[in-house]
Write a structure and sequence with these properties.
This protein has 5 helices and 9 strands, in the order H-E-E-E-E-H-E-E-H-H-H-E-E-E. It is of the alpha+beta class. The protein folds into 2 domains: 157 residues, Pnp Oxidase, Chain A; 42 residues, no CATH class. Strands 1, 2, 3, 4, 5, 6, 7, 8 and 9 form a 9-stranded antiparallel sheet that branches. The model has no long low-confidence stretch (mean pLDDT 96). The chain binds flavin mononucleotide. Flavin mononucleotide (FMN) binds next to strand 2, strand 4 and helix 2. The site of flavin mononucleotide has 16 residues, from strand 2, strand 4 and helix 2.
Amino acid sequence: MSLYEMRKSYTLATLLEKDIDPNPMVQFKTWLADALQGDLPDWVEVNAMTLSTSDGHGNVTSRIVLLKGIEQDKFWFYTNYASEKAAQMEANPSVSLCFLWQHLQRQVRVTGTIAKAPRQQSIDYFHKRPRDSQFGAIVSSQSSVVESREVLEKRLAELKQQYGENDTIECPEDWGGYCVSPTAIEFWQGRESRLHDRLRYRSNGSDWVVERLAP
Ligand SMILES: Cc1cc2nc3c(=O)[nH]c(=O)nc-3n(C[C@H](O)[C@H](O)[C@H](O)COP(=O)(O)O)c2cc1C
C-alpha cells in the first residue's frame, strides 16, 4: 500500500471539557493509567516520550527517552550530562515532550523548562538500574563519535573485570536526571472526520487555563 493511501479512522473516545480534571498533572496520570491498562504487547513502552531540545542558534533535535517519574508536578527522566541533548538544554532550557499512545488514539504534548535533578536522586536511581545498564552508562560517553562497536565492547569487558560481583558501581559524574516543569500541556484525542479533540492547559502564572484548539 502506498503511503498516501494510509489512514485510520479515530473513533475510540472523546475528550470533552466536562470530563477533564482542572489539574493537568492529574489528567496526565489518568491518561497514563489508561495507556497501561489491558493486555498490552510486551514491546509497548507507554513511558516512552519524544524529547525535543534546541541550542542557542535554533538547531532542534529530538529523541526518545523514558519517563521515570512524575513528582512535584514535574516529568523526570535520566540521561548523560555530556550528551548532545544535555549540551542543548544547557544552552536553552526550553524543551518539549511528546507522548504517543497509538492504541488509545491519543497524544500528549508538554512544553516547559528543564532543570537537573539533585545529585543524590540521580545516584539513588542509578543504583536501582540493572547492573549491566550501570556498566553501560560508564563506558558510553553518549553522543560522542566512537571508532567501532568493538572498542565499546572491549571497554565494557575491561570495566566488568575490575568489579567483583557485589562491588558497588559508582554513579558517573556525567550521568543523572532532569525534570521538566510544564508551562503548557495539550491532550489530543483522535476523532472522526479529522475533527479531533484538543484541550490545552496553559499556565498563567498561578492557575491553569484550559483552551480548546482547532484540530
Ligand atoms: C525506547 C527508547 C528509550 C530510550 N530511553 C532513553 C533514556 O531514558 N535516556 C537516554 O539518555 N536515552 C534513551 N534512549 C536513547 C535516545 O533516544 C538517544 O539515542 C540518546 O539519548 C542520545 O541522544 P542525544 O545524542 O540527542 O543526546 C532511548 C531510546 C529509545 C528508542
